Amino acid sequence: MRVEDVAVRPREGGSYLTAEQTLWSWASTTDHKRIGVMFGVATSLSLALGGAFALALRVEHLTPGRTVMGALTYNRLFTMHGVVMVWLFMIPSIPSAFGNFLLPMMVGAKDVAFPRLNLFSFYLYVVGAAVALAGMWVNGVDTGWTFYTPYSVRSPTAVVPVLIGVFILGWSTILTGVNFIVTTHALRAKGLGWLDLPLFVWAIYATAVIQVLATPVLGLSLALVGVDRALDWGSSTPRAGRSAPTSTSSGSTRTPRSTSWCCPRWG
């Protein structure tokens, strides 16, 4: 089966907004425009939620002392704001929403290369967002959106559920990137060369390459934190044979020779 045969033909009887008006028609659609609209709505809701967290943080800044929340609650809100704004809004907003809607039309394709995979990536986004937000609701997480180690390994908050949610969001990002790469390569209109592509297509294509190459690295890092919490490996702490920076006679710190091979500029 050729890639061209996978693309779904546009529905007859109206535009993507008027062809079918039932809820199921939107939930089961493989139309790239509708999926782009759904991504746009979902990421806009995430933006509103992250903005609400930011406003709560600003309220706490109104006075030098405690205003409406304690230190732990502030750290949790700060982390929730970062997780929502970065993983639920900033990363998927432009590629998944605008890219889905515009890229196939700009390259002259009827749809993306894998329409059903495109819909699956949207549901992965919804599931990942739900899991991450549920973890925040149950006990929150206070490690920052980067899940900085070694604190994320020993934090008493609900780090693992949020890690799982972000891990699922990463798969949504990877599948979207694969779809855009294949669409740009295989479904361009006849006679449309690489140098004829609009700048927006180049931008989405470059973003898709980054999504496919970089997201697995981030996912493995998050998985390592989760495994470290579950099995107590100590991979990010000085114990279990991992050396910590040592102090010199002048009071500065020095990275031990055993770890300087991976960070020579710090060694």
Short description:
The protein has 267 residues and is mainly alpha-helical. It has 7 helices and 2 strands. It has a two-stranded antiparallel ribbon.
- Order of adjacent strands in the largest pleated sheet: 1-2
Secondary structure tally, helices: 7
Kindly provide the radius of gyration, computed on alpha-carbon positions and rounded to a whole number of angstroms. 22 Å
Shape: globular
Q: Helicity range of the residues?
A: 55-70%
Largest sheet: 2 strands, antiparallel
Q: For the terminal residues, how far apart are their CA atoms?
A: 54 Å
Summarize the helix and strand pattern as letters.
HHHHHHHEE
How much of the residues is beta strand, in percent?
under 5%
Which residues form runs of ≥5 with pLDDT under 50? 3-13, 243-267
**Strand segment tally:** 2
Structural class: mainly alpha
Task: Summarize model confidence as the mean pLDDT.
Answer: 82
Folded structure, characterized:
α4 (115-138) packs antiparallel against α6. Helix content is 60%, strand content 1%. It has helices spanning 23-27, 32-60, 71-106, 115-138, 151-154, 159-186, 199-231; strands at 246-247, 253-254. A hairpin with a 5-residue loop joins β1 and β2. It has a two-stranded antiparallel ribbon. The model is unreliable at 3-13 and 243-267 (pLDDT under 50). It is mainly alpha-helical and 267 residues long.
